[in-house]
Amino acid sequence: MNIEPRIAAWHEELTRIRRDIHAHPELGFEEERTSAIVARELREYGCEVTTGIAKTGVVGTIRVGNSPRAVGLRADMDCLPMQEMNSFAHASKFKGRMHGCGHDGHTTMLLGAAKYLAETRNFQGTVHLIFQPAEEGQGGGRVMVEEGLFEKFPCDAIFAMHNWPVLEAGKFQIRPGPMLAGGMRFDITVKGRGTHGAKPETGIDPVITAAHIATAAQSIVSRTMSPHEPVVLSVTQIHAGDAYNVIPETAVLRGTIRCFSEQAREQVRATFTRIAHEMAGAFGAEAIVDIKDGYPPLVNDEKEAGFLADVATEIVGAENVERNGPRIMGSEDFSYMLQAVPGAFVMLGQGGGTSGSGHTSCEVHNPGYDFNDDVLPLGATLFARLVEKKLSTEAAA
Ligand SMILES: [Zn+2]
Ligand SMILES: [Zn+2]
To answer: What is the pLDDT along the chain (397 residues), one digit of tens a residue?
Structure first.
């Protein structure tokens, strides 16, 4: 493996930073301590530092020469509202807060790349190191874009990575085009007419109506979408009634929808809305449909995904880079940045054994999860090489 020796020499220091952030996890838009560490480190390395973007977001900038070319690298800093079950020394010090998605590792890898790039300056142009808040559900990436991230820090291309426990450490997985799903969540309120449970003929039953809507919704994916267009529609909650002998006034259905294109998203939204209204109407009830957008699908630029795969191949070899990896039904708010600037998102393997702390690898969002410190130098090397290749001194000459 072709790890940058300078970065490999910082492995211990990077591990210390990663575990310190892991022990002090902070929720979305509350990453005060973490962003203070990031800003302090970046200043120490000699970067220009801008704080307070999307509340706790930080951007570090390194300029070499006067080439107008610029690359953005992004990491996320927030933790999850969940209880950590690990007992190692760097386990979360806070109840109900945990770095269960490895954003502590993403932040540390980007710091490693920043230190390397600031010291070696082996490129021509500008690199913006983007540390974003609130990836887990609150759309910190969207807020940064809305607050003018790319007007203040224009980038020709942007890159980010996510650790991936189901992929062996030392491997990368990417795909051109749509890679992670876009999401929507829905609330459907069925309004009937409450009555005595023994006299259904005097009311309109929202429970039976909701059950029919839930069943009919399952035909949306199987009967109205192309089999080549992956979509998931899950009803995850049905709430109605409080008594054995009362037919309630209302019933509520909730759940999630995942798909890979804006067109699929609009198609599912329209079909589900129609089914809910007309199914309710068939029973004499009424449906109030509220389908809210989550993150958009994450779409890798074909050229930049190929470029990233080429750079990864130089580091770990072709046999360790899956260029046409599977689509993933999870979502990521880096998708908002990719809507603004072409770029690519890659999965960094961190599984297949024990992590740096001797901890057995498990899935992200699991209470026993830990980022694998073994891959810190690899992720930092990939970030650094992306900049050196994109802004190569040869190309500028
Ligand atoms: Zn997550
Ligand atoms: Zn994550």
So the answer is: 899 999 999 999 999 999 999 999 999 999 999 999 999 999 999 999 999 999 999 999 999 999 999 999 999 999 999 999 999 999 999 999 999 999 999 999 999 999 999 999 999 999 999 999 999 989 999 999 999 999 999 999 999 999 999 999 999 999 999 999 999 999 999 999 999 999 999 999 999 999 999 999 999 999 999 999 999 999 999 999 999 999 999 999 999 999 999 999 999 999 999 999 999 999 999 999 999 999 999 999 999 999 999 999 999 999 999 999 999 999 999 999 999 999 999 999 998 666 555 667 789 999 999 999 999 999 999 999 999 999 997 755 4
Question: Which bound ligand lies closest to the C-alpha atom of 76?
Answer: 2
Query: CB within 8 A of 223, min separation 6: which ones?
Result: none
Q: How far is the CA of 27 from the centre of ligand 2 (A)?
A: 13
Cα dist. 181→70, 101, 257, 331, 346 in Å? Answer: 28, 17, 9, 5, 14
Q: Which positions make up the binding site for Mn(2+)?
A: 101, 103, 136, 162, 365
Q: How far is the CA of 217 from the centre of ligand 2 (A)?
A: 29
Predicted TM-score (pTM) of the model is 0.91
Ligand nearest to the CA of 80: 1
- CA-wise closest residue to 20 among 82, 90, 80, 114: 90
* Ligand closest to CA 98: 1
- 8: CA distance to ligand 2 center in Å? 24
Q: Which residues, chain by chain, have CB under 5 Å from ion ligand 2?
A: 101
Give the dihedral of Cα atoms 174, 103, 349, 89; nearest 10 deg: 180
Find the 364 Cα to ligand 2 centroid distance in Å: 8
Residue the block writes with tokens 């090397």: 381
Partnered with residue 185 across adjacent β-strands are 256, 292
Rounded to the nearest angstrom, the distance between the alpha carbon of 136 and the centre of ligand 2 is 7
Between the CA of 371 and the centroid of ligand 2 the distance, in Å, is: 11
Delineate the domains of the chain, giving CATH numbers in brackets: 5-180+297-396 (3.40.630.10), 182-293 (3.30.70.360)
* Rounded-to-integer distance, Cα 119 and Cα 113, Å: 10
